[in-house]
Amino acid sequence: MSIFKDLLEENPVIAAVKDDAGLEKCCQMEDIRVVFILYGNICNLSEIVEKIRKAGKTAVVHMDLIGGISGREIAVQFVKRSGADGIISTKPALINEARKLDMFTVLRVFLLDSMAYDNIEKEIRLCRPDAVEILPGLMPKVIRKISEQHRTPLIAGGLISDREDVMGALDAGAVSVSSTNETVWNM
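The structure assignment produced for this chain is given below.
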């Protein structure tokens, strides 16, 4: 979905919220247009998504972090019914299901070693996500290499804490950064 890529390019800082306080703060920030939901459960997810949507922002739910949600494809339908615009997951099967439901998709990849790095191409091919979130996001050399090899937009996440980190990731080829650090949201 090029709409999602455009949204990421126009809004290079993504608020990743991990609690109600972060949710309230990001909903009040005009420059934040995309919100990654990293907390909640099946009882309160709809309320969290509704707050984000009422604030005029795009709500993307991290499927792997929501309490009470299984790793099965049917759970994506639940998240869609909650009003979410998209999902994040480390599971290609969930990404595929979300694509069928016309949701934005972000494949989250933890680059722990060379095996994980070598696996990226296979995972992208398996599920064709709208974007790939690389963690940790403090690896400009790796971000550059991946962005040169793949057309899928990259999001740098994890350990992003200051302007230098943000600019390093963006200069290396990431289209945006995600962070739970509220100081970064103001950049």
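Interim note for the steering committee: The CA atoms of residues 100 and 160 lie 32 Å apart. The first helix runs from residue 2 to 10.
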